[in-house]
Automatic annotation (TrEMBL):
Keyword field contains S-adenosyl-L-methionine: no
Alphabetized InterPro entries for the sequence: NA-bd_OB-fold (IPR012340), Primosome_PriB/ssb (IPR000424)
Residue ranges of the region described as Disordered: 122-147
UniProt keyword annotations, A-Z: DNA-binding
Organism: Streptomyces microflavus
Residues in coiled coil: none
Protein name: Single-stranded DNA-binding protein 1
Single Gene Ontology MF annotation: single-stranded DNA binding
Length: 157
């Protein structure tokens, strides 16, 4: 399968929205990437135009994001680039999504303390993989209603 894998460096533009589904956790947040360039004539740094992406994460990564990432935090996001068009307000809009494979804090801009997640045993009841409309529940581009809750970032003492 040919997929476009990218690594982006930027900042969380929104809080992580988290939702539990029948197949595990799902999270999303907006991610801002602004290129910076040094002007050789003025010797000053200038910002280029900001690009915004919606980052999607699933299962364990989704839960870990919800407990780790806050608005404005510098991140490195690696994942599959997805472009989609939608009809909205009588016009066609293009959205760029990133299905995250890995997300971490940008350590060139600060420090972080890693905490390993203690896994619990899975439930004995197998989850349903289909939403009420027969489609895959929670998949980007699906027809099921996706309601998200914003979870508070876990404080470390």
């Amino acid at each position: 399968m040919n997929e476009t894998m990218v690594t982006l460096v930027g900042n969380a533009a929104t809080a992580v929205e988290f939702r539990e589904t029948a197949t595990g956790g799902m999270a999303r947040f907006r991610f801002a990437v602004t290129p910076r360039r040094r002007d050789r004539e003025t010797q000053l740094w200038t910002d280029g135009p900001t690009s915004f992406y919606t980052v999607w994460a699933w299962r364990t990564l989704a839960a870990n994001l919800a407990g780790s990432v806050g608005i404005g935090e510098p991140l490195v996001v690696h994942g599959r680039l997805k472009v989609r068009d939608e009809e909205q307000d009588g016009g066609r809009r293009t959205f760029v999504d990133l299905e995250a494979v890995a997300v971490g804090h940008d350590l060139s801009r600060g420090t972080a303390a890693f905490r390993r997640v203690v896994r619990t045993e899975p439930a004995l009841t197998p989850p349903s993989h289909h939403g009420p409309d027969g489609g895959s529940e929670g998949a980007p581009g699906g027809t099921t209603d996706v309601s998200f809750a914003v979870r508070e970032k876990v404080a470390v003492s």
